[in-house]
Task: inverse folding
């Protein structure tokens, strides 16, 4: 599998492509791309400060909507709790009668402002997309910074 995600040139905000062999991997990598926009996730993972976690549960009638809800939900909860998220555990995307549902555990740290990069204010619906490319999945998202 190629890279987990990569950033694209964008005039004012941050745009990225995330990749995955499955929807689970794709959504996990999209979350990591967003977290890495806000802070240095590699340094956060090595910190010895207390690790915090929260559960994320989202649902939507399509995968693009689920991506938006997942990214926006993780951003909102992390912001409300005052933490910098850096990792995703146990992420599962499943098909339901009404579309798709996602559950995951997000890991983060409080008081890690020295690792901050950009202030992500929200997730745009502009150019938001989830698609199948051959045997893999690809997601495009724009973050308002």
Result:
């Amino acid at each position: 599998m190629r890279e987990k995600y990569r950033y694209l040139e964008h005039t004012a905000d941050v745009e990225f492509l995330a990749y995955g062999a499955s929807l689970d991997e794709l959504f996990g990598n999209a979350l990591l791309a967003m977290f890495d926009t806000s802070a240095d996730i590699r340094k956060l993972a090595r910190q010895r400060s207390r690790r915090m976690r929260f559960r994320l549960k989202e649902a939507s009638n399509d995968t693009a909507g689920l991506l938006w809800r997942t990214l926006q939900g993780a951003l909102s909860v992390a912001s409300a709790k005052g933490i910098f998220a850096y990792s995703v555990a146990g992420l599962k995307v499943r098909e339901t009668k009404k579309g798709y549902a996602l559950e995951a555990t997000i890991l983060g740290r409080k008081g890690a402002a020295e690792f901050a990069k950009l202030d992500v204010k929200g997730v745009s619906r502009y150019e938001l997309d989830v698609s199948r490319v051959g045997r893999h999945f690809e997601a495009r998202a724009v973050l308002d910074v």
Summary: The beta strands are 5-8, 14-20, 51-60, 83-96, 99-110, 122-133, 136-144. Residues 44 and 86 are 6 Å apart (CA to CA). The radius of gyration is 14 Å. DSSP finds three helices and seven strands in the chain.
